[in-house]
Amino acid sequence: MNASPAIKSPNAQATGESVKSFGSLWIRTVPKATWTEYFLGAEPGRESPTCHWVADLSAFLAEFDATLVELDVFGDESLLEAMRAALAESVAADFPVSLLVDDGTRRYSSGGLLARAVVGVKVEPIWYQARKMGFRFEDDTAAYCYLGGLVPADATQDGAGQTRQVMLDIKGGLQAAGMGFRDVMRTWYYLDGILSWYDDFNRARTAFFKEHDVFSRLMPASTGIGIANASGKLVLAKVHAARPKNEGFAVRVAESPLQGSAYAYGSAFSRAVELTLPRGRLLHVSGTASIAPSGETEYLDDVAAQIRRTLDVVAGILQHAGMDGPDAVRGIAYFRHAKDLGLWEAVRQAFNLPPQAVIVVRADICRDDLLFELELEAAKA
């Protein structure tokens, strides 16, 4: 299930041994037993004009008869306004897109677009309380659910209250897809002003998980990161869930040999989660930072050392799962300070990550002494 270069299109041009492009987009392909998953991305400032992103995405979907199931855009207000206008005129006009905003990077190249599309399965929208929240589809071995762009309705509540609202919406969306919280395998929580209320978020999430018996099955992989969203609410969430139909599909917690359990210091998530399919495996690595097994931040005030430690931890997760850097198909590198964004290219090369799989974003990490965080998705045959 490695990323495949076998894209048959006159408009797709090779950009590397295992990467293809389509106009301004890079593409990584993961073939499944009976369908195909495409990971698409774009970054500003790399021969990738942002004005072309949505048009190229629409053209790709039409040419490959693909269905979009996930779309995230990171950037400053001007980029997001351009994306919003372009999306309104595209095939994704009513798509539950996650629009994440940071205006502290105008002098730097950061942010980008990440999308996921599928071919070979019938995709159905998920509606809850008159909102399109995401999509579901299934094959012979499992049913899948992708929810995105989830924000609370009531912005007058505090962070914990808005977190619970979003959790209830996730529950409703999952139920509309014929699933529940115990089917969730991956979550993202984008929290505006994270440093002032992260403990409140963790308490609200943990309470909800206890209430819905999540701990008795599998704690999902997760990212909790400090970045605002276009709605102005304190929380924007995304969820991936899967319900196996038979033994051909399995979900398990993947080990992180160099870190302890996040639950030991109050965060309810797994370091990584692995999916085993009839054709290959998919690994979700949670947002990972320079944290010791005992839970303390390592290498205070040293961004280079924190990056090295984070990469060591992520490499340990990948290696334990029989994977390595080139197996990455999607990721986000989060930097606390915009001035450090330029460090990423050397880091990527040292870690042997594909040249086009990870976008770079400025964001607040969940502790004020953490300077870098990395999340990855990797695939292996």
Summarize the structure.
The chain has 381 residues and is of the alpha+beta class. The protein is built from six helices and 20 strands.
pLDDT averaged residue by residue:
90
Q: How helix-rich are the residues, as a percent range?
A: 10-25%
The beta-strand count equals 20
Order of helices and strands: EEEEHEHEEEEEHEHEEEEEEHEHEE
Q: For this structure, what is the CATH homologous superfamily of the largest domain? A: RutC-like
Strand % is 25-35%
Termini separation comes to 4 Å
Description:
The structure is a single chain. By secondary structure, the chain is α+β, with helices and mostly antiparallel strands. It has three domains: 1-121, 60s Ribosomal Protein L30, Chain: A (2-Layer Sandwich), CATH 3.30.1330; 122-247, 60s Ribosomal Protein L30, Chain: A (2-Layer Sandwich); 254-381, RutC-like (60s Ribosomal Protein L30, Chain: A, 2-Layer Sandwich), CATH 3.30.1330.40. The protein is 23% helix and 34% strand. The protein contains six helices and 20 strands. The radius of gyration is 19 Å and the shape is globular. The chain starts with 11 loop residues before the first strand and ends with a strand.
Features:
single chain, 381 residues, alpha+beta, 60s Ribosomal Protein L30, Chain: A, 3 domains, six-stranded mixed beta sheet, 23% helix, disordered N terminus
Question: Which helices and strands occur, and which strands form pairs?
Answer:
Elements: E1 12-16, E2 19-22, E3 25-31, E4 36-42, H1 50-64, E5 67-75, H2 77-88, E6 98-101, E7 112-119, E8 124-128, E9 131-138, E10 142-150, H3 159-176, E11 184-191, H4 194-211, E12 221-225, E13 228-229, E14 235-244, E15 250-253, E16 272-276, E17 281-288, H5 303-320, E18 328-335, H6 344-351, E19 358-362, E20 372-380
Parallel strand pairs: 5-6, 11-12, 18-19
Antiparallel strand pairs: 1-2, 2-3, 3-4, 4-7, 5-7, 6-13, 8-9, 9-10, 10-14, 11-14, 15-16, 16-17, 17-20, 18-20
Helix pairs in contact: 1-2, 3-4
